[in-house]
Amino acid sequence: MSNESAYKGKVLVAGATGKTGAWVVKRLLHYGVPVRVLSRSEEKAKALFGDRVEIVVGKIQERGDVDRALNGCEAVISALGSNSVSGESSPSEVDRDGAVRLVDAAAAAGVKHIAMVSSIGVTKWYHPLNLFGGVLSMKLAAEEHLRKVFSSAGRSYTVIRPGGLKDGEPFQQRLHVEQGDKLWNGSTNRADVAELAVLSLWVDKARNRTFEVINEAPEVQETLAGYYDQLAE
Ligand SMILES: NC(=O)c1ccc[n+]([C@@H]2O[C@H](COP(=O)([O-])OP(=O)(O)OC[C@H]3O[C@@H](n4cnc5c(N)ncnc54)[C@H](OP(=O)(O)O)[C@@H]3O)[C@@H](O)[C@H]2O)c1
Q1: How many other C-beta atoms lie within 10 A of the C-beta of residue 182?
Q2: Contact 162, 121 (CB under 8 A)
Q3: To pair with 77 at 20 to 30 A between CA atoms, which of 14, 18, 118, 219?
Q4: What are the angstrom distances between the C-alpha of 146 and each of 35, 140, 173, 217?
Q5: What is the DSSP-derived secondary structure letter of residue 31?
Q6: Ligand 1 — pocket residues by CB below 6 A?
Q7: Which residues make Cβ contacts (< 8 Å) with residue 51, sequence separation at least 6?
Q8: DSSP string covering 174-216, please?
């Protein structure tokens, strides 16, 4: 596992202070990729990352904040997520409108690639998780917008749909990847989701892919890049 990547563009991480987002930052820094984070709290971002990243303070609701954060970035990884049924961190505000705003602003800023953390079950409006503010439907709307805007020439996207998220170190699980949103159960580690998102920056077969991921069995992994070979267009 090399700790150097050929990718040298600056990457904006949205939702960096969250549990998955913090892993995204950690893995980007591991590969020597320059990182900027958009955070509502400078204090929280500083406590997590110190001086190792650039911090832009702002909300995903404010287009001006998002534009400032994107200025000069080549790629975006979004691990944004709602955590309340109403208000500023609700599914409609964050998972749909916030993510859509991020996609539009990124396109306008000349960003080349976006990786978005979504969820298994997003196409199932009748899934019980959707009782939480329609979170799955909100995520699907954001995914669809991303696919529409970032499939055009010169841009690309990767949508990762994990099962239930767990904490723990990366590379400890054999993963199961699938397409078509057929999974109902399963869980996976945030750290592996973060690694897959980071790899999408330079792994060709990650371009313009949407896929689900869950743990299959404990088994140490050298790299997760090979999982992208299993995906169809
Ligand atoms: N939990 C699960 O089992 C599960 C399963 C499948 C998919 N997912 C999805 O996976 C992703 C990551 O999940 P997670 O558990 O790692 O998330 P998390 O810890 O809840 O982090 C969410 C991030 O979003 C940020 N955020 C929320 N509202 C914001 C706003 N208005 N403006 C700017 N940032 C805002 C939070 O910032 P603050 O730190 O400032 O609050 C935090 O950085 C989410 O999209 C989640 O829906 C989760």
Answers
A1: 10
A2: no
A3: 219
A4: 21, 10, 29, 31
A5: T
A6: 15-21, 40-41, 44, 59-61, 79-81, 83, 88-89, 94, 98, 117, 119, 162, 164-165, 190
A7: none
A8: EEEEESSS-----EEEHHHHHHHHHHTTT-GGGTTEEEEEEEE
The answer to whether the pTM exceeds 0.85 is yes
Q: CA–CA distance from 74 to each of 10, 110, 144, 196 (Å)? A: 6, 7, 21, 18
The CA-atom distances, in angstroms, between 27 and each of 19, 22, 120, 170 are 13, 9, 23, 10
pLDDT tens for each residue of 102-152: 999 999 999 999 999 999 999 999 999 999 999 999 999 999 999 999 998
> Catalytic one among 118, 119, 137, 200?
119
Q: Is the Cβ–Cβ distance between 163 and 188 less than 8 Å? A: yes
How many CB atoms neighbour CB 229 within 10 A? 9
78 flagged as catalytic: no
Structural fold of domain 11-230: Rossmann fold (3.40.50)
